Amino acid sequence: MNIAFFLTQKKDVVYLKNNVTIRQALEKMEYHRYSAVPLIDKEGRYTGTLTEGDLLWHMKHNDELSFKDAYKVNIRDVNKHMTNNAVKIDSDMQNLIELAKKQNFVPVVDDNEIFIGIIKRSDIISYRHDNIDKQDKQDKQDKQEKDLALIS
Known about the structure:
CATH superfamily: CBS-domain
Largest sheet: 4 strands, mixed
Radius of gyration: 21 Å
Number of helices: 4
CATH architecture: Roll
Distance between the termini: 40 Å
CATH topology: CBS-domain
CATH class: Alpha Beta
Number of strands: 7
Oligomer: single chain
Structural class: alpha/beta
Order of helices and strands: EEHEEHEHEEH
Strand order of the largest sheet: 1-7-6-5
Strand content: 15-25%
């Protein structure tokens, strides 16, 4: 199966550019109620993931930094503690699933490392769950047909 089937395109993804401030990041994450978002550079390349924890730890370790002053600090200055590895759009399902086991979302890039979207772990699980249900129903129907054939 092609992983593009699961892709949430960049236009539908909440992400941040590397040149925003801590305050802008916090406000965007709060508004969308996300605890982690992909980061991209000015060329559109995926550069990492920013989490609420990254922001909290940065503020904790910088006593002079208050929320009021968060507009003065760029997120490039924040240490990132999570590494969400990206996959290329032509990657195989096995590679995707290996990453999705450890990440809530898997960033997807093209051949030039340009960020094109994400694949959410929940979408993979939902797809697999739906297919298990379909297979269970088909197995049940096949068994009923087999049982009827034996009776006839």
